[in-house]
Amino acid sequence: MLTTAKALGMAVFFAAALGWSQSSNSAQNNGMKHDMKAAGHDVKKDTVKATHATEKDTKKAAHATAKDTKKVAHATAKDTKEAAHATAKDTRKAWDKTKDTTKGAFHGAKKGAEQKTN
């Protein structure tokens, strides 16, 4: 029984030693290095693609925003000008009415005062 155990132990030892030999490990490492390198290239390629797409879409959005901002600025300027004209027109009307009312009141008061003295 001791001999069988020794033989079995030696067989396991040599099998492990042969399975982990340098040449197969080196070939495996080279394969893994190649796979890692290929994966790195793929990641880099995809990252560059994503960066370019993001840059393109950002420029597109910036141009659209600038265009829309210009439209809003023109519309605001136009509406502001119209509001200013309307305000000026209404202010002038109010001034004229106040002036006419003040003149009328003054003339009425003057007339009333003249009638009292006569």
Task: Describe the model.
This protein has 118 residues and is mostly helical. 97% of the residues lie in helices and 0% in strands. The protein is built from two helices and no strands. It has helices spanning 2-19, 22-117. It is rod-shaped, with a radius of gyration of 49 Å. It starts with a helix and ends with a helix.
- Helix count equals 2
* Shape descriptor: rod-shaped
Helix content estimate:
over 70%
Mean pLDDT metric: 80
> What is the first-to-last residue Cα distance?
157 Å
Structural class: mainly alpha
Say how many strands there are.
Answer: 0
Alpha-carbon Rg, integer: 49 Å
**N-to-C SSE series?**
HH
Largest beta sheet, briefly?
A: none
List low-pLDDT spans.
none
Strand content: under 5%
